[in-house]
Fold each of these.
Amino acid sequence: MQRLVNREQDEEFIFALLNHARDIGFTSTNIDLIYGLPKQTPESFAFTLKRVTELNPDRLSVL
């Protein structure tokens, strides 16, 4: 799905990046999600949302 819109971001990398940011002192985190991507289903978006909430961001935007 991400490949279709040229926005590939590996889940493992995102988790590591956010955790590293916190480790070095970032006190506020934000994650933006895009809804309605090609081939996205309600189920796939629900899975993404579940994984993102595990990161416990301070803000979550759904565009």
Amino acid sequence: IEIGHCSKIAAGSVVLSPVPHNKTVAGVPARVVGETGCDQPSRQMDQLLPSQSMDHVVSFDI
């Protein structure tokens, strides 16, 4: 059984057939319940912290 790129399998699901790319499957048997929406989710997320939010961490004197 092939699981497509960027696909997600819900916990407890029983996959009996191939899962297409960028799909989310769930259930017994597993069925498509959604799509991931992008090929590279990590590139779509804003993973940068604003410099102000870390000031309290680095403001102590050593």
Amino acid sequence: MEEMHSEPRTDKIDTHHHFVPDFYAQGDPSGWPTPKWSPAASESIMEQLGVKTTILSLTAPGACILEGQKSFDLARRCNEYCSELRDKSPRKWGFFAAFPSLLNTEAALAEIAYALDVLHADGVSLFTRYGTGNTYLGHADIEPIWKELDRRQAVVFVHPTHPVDTTKVNESMPQPLIDYPHETTRTATDMIIASTRRKYPGCKVILSHAGGPCHISSRESPTVPNTGNKLWLTSNRSTMT
């Protein structure tokens, strides 16, 4: 039997690694504290875990923590910061671009063009929900964004943000512990029901946290016909014809 090696592999690519520059030092409404961060701190973690390349992304709420032009400016500053870091060590760093609210369609499309065409980002980072309501990624208002990303065959990293109701179930249980993974599943299911992935198959989607509890879908799907769900009725009818 070959001897087991305890040394970590050194060819890993980390696609879920957040950066927190000093100009993004505001709190997260989920209750999660904003950590102190530096490239050196990330490099130390990479060395410990055998990570060769890290793809940086901005955690929730991202540039959406601000509104209007300030949100656009913050997204641009974050993207240019990552671009400069990547250019210094291109084998060590990459990044998924940040954006203002996707509900500001023109601003989001402009930043997609700048981030991918000028800064050459490795992909984009989208949050599970936008605005003050339940506008998840399968919503019609997000379709112009998906259409452009599909045209570019972009890599799309989906990261959760807080749900509409930010009330804590327990003061000792910040939302990222439980609610965030559920938000990932909610937006993934929303995209499936809205046929987002079918309409825009060119995007390569990465769901953070392994998609949350997506794995229970096979257990729950047999109950869908009992709900009178239009998706099931349409799919069933098209299968029979």
